[in-house]
Amino acid sequence: MLVSCSADNTTIKIKGSDTEVNLAVQLAESFHSTNPGLFVSISGGGSGLGIASLMNGTADLANSSRSINDLELKLFHQRGINLDSFIFAQDAIAFVVSSSLTIDSITPAELAAILKGSLKNWSSLTGKDLPVNIYGRQSNSGTHDFVKKKLGIDFSPHAKEMNGNAQILEALKSDNSGIGYVGAGYVIHGGSKGIKVLTVYETKNSKAVSPLDAAMIAAGKYYFQRPLFQYYKTGSFEKVKPILDFEKSTSGQKIIRDAGYYPVN
User: Fold this and answer.
1) Domain span at 133
2) Domain count, the chain
3) Which of the two ends of the chain, N or C, has the fewest CB atoms closer than 10 A to its terminal CB?
4) Do 205 and 237 sit in the same domain of this protein?
5) Which of 9, 57, 4 is nearest to 238 (CA)?
6) How many Cβ atoms are within 10 Å of 31's Cβ, its own excluded?
């Protein structure tokens, strides 16, 4: 998605996380309105793609909804490239089902059983004999990687791999036995008709927390919250500094909050 285009020396190229792409576009549009001499181009494709694009020189900033991994760091080191990073927001992962499914809360242990494929029917959780259909992301997605690591699982081979958050939400609206995971910002701005966001409690005796509860996210109380990263080459700092400064500004923080994400104080 190209917000504006110009010569490379005045264009900041941002690629990567699909979780962050809509937010990045909103930030870039507002940034350009107050910095008309600078242009920002935005594209998604997943956190892994963003980091690879930074490595091969086709991106100035890599949006990533996960930390850079050891293999990626090794490849940058082999090329003599020094990196730095900026956490510009926090995100919460929402686990979403059809609004017709008779379940409102879930534990991480139950989610792990569902997503790895050992719990194949909703009967034990809802009393309804319905097969579980899993909607997830591809392996190059930072969201896929985050959920996998947080739950300590490998995903069921029967999980449907979708291209992005919006596609997952659309699938769930027409599947009354499906479950999927998306960035909370996509639920807030993607429309909630026909779907339900599950609250998550770490144990049966703890309070269930919603990924849409800003106060609980600020307090670090939601089990599936995470930082959103932007990686850049140390030598490119002066080029990307204007957009980083804007993201930290009052205007940038308001855009982050209004988009359904959580500013980093």
Assistant:
1) 92-218
2) 2
3) C
4) no
5) 9
6) 23
Q: What are phi and psi of 11, to 5 degrees?
A: -115, 125
Under 8 Å between Cβ of 256 and 30: no
Instruction: Answer whether residue 73 is part of any domain.
Output: yes
CA 153 to chain centre: 19
pLDDT in tens, 26-71: 999 999 999 998 999 999 999 999 999 999 999 999 999 899 999 9
pTM for this predicted structure = 0.80
First-to-last alpha carbon distance for the chain, in angstroms, is 29
Torsion angle, alpha carbons of 41, 14, 233, 255, to 10: 110
Distances in Å between the Cα of 70 and the Cα atoms of 74, 115, 119, 139, 246 are: 6, 25, 32, 16, 30
Closest to 224 measured CA to CA, from 234, 212, 236: 212
Look up the CATH number of the domain holding residue 118. 3.40.190.10
Q: Specify if 254 maps to a domain.
A: yes
Average pLDDT, the chain: 91
pLDDT at residue 5, rounded to an integer: 39
How far is C-alpha 251 from the chain's CA centre?
A: 22
